């Protein structure tokens, strides 16, 4: 099965990884932070704002692959501060109000100044 590299100007980029990869009916979205792609900088320093931007970035990558949030089957979340869990959930629930995908949340091991959250997704286009 051939893989297709997914790229969009509507999400942050890096020369170290692909924004997403589509292989067959699967779309894998790389860990995406709350970075505004138009400025290349982190958005506000609240967990809600960074979660909202990270999910916006993930959604843009999904769209570039021909998928939507409704196709997402798994979400992985890395938090810098576990105490931000409640704030993360406040914003996350707006994006997946019913029948949410599976999810895991873990502590981010890297110490990156200002970064509060990173989100990755797997979607299935059936």
From TrEMBL:
Highest taxon in the source lineage: Bacteria
InterPro entries associated with the record: RutC-like_sf, YjgF/YER057c/UK114
Pfam families: Ribonuc_L-PSP
UniProt similarity note: Belongs to the RutC family.
Name recorded for this polypeptide: 2-iminobutanoate/2-iminopropanoate deaminase
